Every structure is written in C-alpha cells, then in structure tokens.
Amino acid sequence: MPRVKYDYFEALERQGAFAHQEALMLIEILKDFDAAELPAKVAAIHEIENAADELNHEIFTRIATEFLTPIDREDIAEMALRLDDIVDYVEDVVQQLHMYNIQDIHPPAFEMAELIEKSTAALVGSLKEFRNFKKSKALAERVIDVNALEEEADRLYFRTIRDLHMNYVDRPVFIIAWSNLFQRMERCIDACENVSDMMRTVALKNT
Questions:
Q1: Residue 186 and residue 204: Cα distance in Å, rounded?
Q2: What CATH number is attached to the domain comprising 27?
Q3: Is residue 2 part of a domain?
C-alpha cells in the first residue's frame, strides 16, 4: 500500500489547538480560583503539554523521513518549535501560580488571560487559512488580528507593572510574584505573534 501523505498543515493546526485549549483552561483557573486545586490543574495542563510534545516529535520525525514537504522543511520545523513555545509558556504561567503560592488573583490577570485566549484563538484561525496561503485573502487579516492583540497586551503589561510599583510598594513579595507572572503571560502573546509573523514570511517566500 502507498504511504499516506502526512498533512503538515493539519498538524500545525492541532498544535495551535493545544495552545488554545490551555488558554481556556487558564481562564477557568483564574475565574474559579482555588489555590488548593492548583496541583491538580498543574497536572491537567501538563497532560496537554505532553500531548503537544508528542505531536511535535511526530512532525519532526516526518520531516526527517519524507523527501517532499509542502513548504521548506526548515520553515515547518521553525513553526512547530514556535507553536510548542506557546504551549510551554501557558503551562509555565499555571506552574508559577502554584510556585509563588498565589492565594488571590490580581484583577488585571483576568484581562491578560483573556488576551492570551483571544490570541491563541486568532492564531488557530490563521493556521486554518495557512494551508491556502497562496490564495487566501483572510490570512493577512488574521495575522493583523494577532498583532493587534499583542499591542493591546503590551499596553496592559506596562500599565499593570507601573501600577504594581506605584501602589503596592509596601508588598514587595506581591510585586515580585505578579511582575514575574505578568511577564510570563505577556510572553505567551508575544509567542503567538512570532508564529503569526512567520506565517506571513513563509507566504511571501512561496508566492
């Protein structure tokens, strides 16, 4: 029997879906926050990260063994790595909540988590368009959506960090913990933009 051709675009879409699944879980954790449940939440999100790692390994195995790929194998590998970064970064946020022994959620964290969810959702939309990058008119719009969310996240990050250092000077541990958490949350959205920008670059290279 002839070997079934591997669908790299579908695999990249699944990687994006793992990131979005984690982002939805992050929102759920923050909205119904219970510090006692964090160990179980950390374990649950780690299962998603493990599944994403297995998919990443599958993609790299195919790249190494198949003669022809729909776009440069280096570009597929780089996109897979960048998508894996998002999954790792969202997991890291949840782990940090537990490591810092967070007992109550700083309100701006809800806003940042929503931006992470919107960014991963927009990225999933971009990935669905990516397989048709030579014809798709929507891909550029989806990329712009991700970039706009990253800019919004930057503004929220700077505003929040300044507020921490202005209004919580008597709580140094609080400042340290939440500064680090917001840095990690903002990094999730930067990682979404990195993938989005690469899709645009690959599209330009191949058209």
A1: 27
A2: 1.20.58.220
A3: no
